[in-house]
Amino acid sequence: MKPPVFEFSAPTHLSGVLERLAHYGDEGRVLAGGQSLVPLLNMRMASPRGLVSINHCDELSYIRVVDGCLTIGALTRQQEANTSELVKSACPLLAAVLPEVGCRASRNRSTICGSLAHADPCAELPAVAVALDAMFVVRSQQGMREIDAAEFFVSELCNSMEPGEMLEAVRLPVAKADSRVAFSKISSRGHGFALAAVATQLDIAADGTCTSARIAAVGGGATPIRLVDAEQTLIGRRVSEDAARAAADAALPMLDPSSDLHADSGYRRRVIGKMVRQTLCQAAGV
Ligand SMILES: Cc1cc2nc3c(=O)[nH]c(=O)nc-3n(C[C@H](O)[C@H](O)[C@H](O)COP(=O)(O)OP(=O)(O)OC[C@H]3O[C@@H](n4cnc5c(N)ncnc54)[C@H](O)[C@@H]3O)c2cc1C
Fold first, then answer.
1. Domain 180-284 has what CATH class?
2. Which of 179, 204, 209, 217 is 20 to 30 A from 41 (CA-CA)?
């Protein structure tokens, strides 16, 4: 099926992109890697009047640490981040999740920010953003504002950006040197979106007690969910199999998974419980 007719522009600078987005307002869309938007256009599930490509804006392609945060620009491809030593050292949770997102071919084009802006409830990268309280740097011709992860994801394929705004970068707090991470995903095919997934990061003190726990799930609702009730059961405790089981039990009431062609809500709830326990044991090394 062919996409609806649209006007196309490909500015070479951010200012040009913002000018175009302001011109189109809510009839405009950013085109990044196109790996989700182009299928939506072809299936006529999206019909913007104007498509504004950022693929010629080299100033948006960067990975750097600024003020204690790993900062990733809007044009940074997933594969570039997947092979980045800076990502591995500054944000091991992101490094653990990236190889599980799509396949080499899709990651070569897909951007980190595109996956976040797309806000698919079964996309894995939003789980990392929510687990780590990422900050979303959003810009328009009117200026810049920051949105925290808890506010950014509104519902399925819906984020809290306004017309004329774009996601310029995402900022993830740099992890402690001895942070431990684990990621678990269930999908119906070898690659492709998760049916459900859990991303976990733990900080363990020298005496073996947990000083910080970050756990987030996707597939457990219309948006990624930070499992704070599960996290709180772990602080000040040793992360044993029993503690992991108790945390998984505390996570279940926070979930509101849906049923679809691929899996029913009961199945998603069960596997998320299992993956919370599994990732906690893996991260804690028990
Ligand atoms: C074969 C295949 C397998 C895949 N498997 C997975 C998978 O396992 N897990 C997964 O999470 N994803 C998967 N994807 C999707 C992939 O990660 C997409 O690339 C991603 O969802 C969107 O990123 P993009 O850069 O391609 O954005 P695009 O497709 O260009 O845009 C997606 C949406 O986000 C908006 N957008 C993009 N960038 C910005 C920005 N900077 N500011 C504001 N809005 C913006 C667009 O307007 C559009 O609405 C797969 C894709 C393919 C083709």
1. alpha beta
2. 217
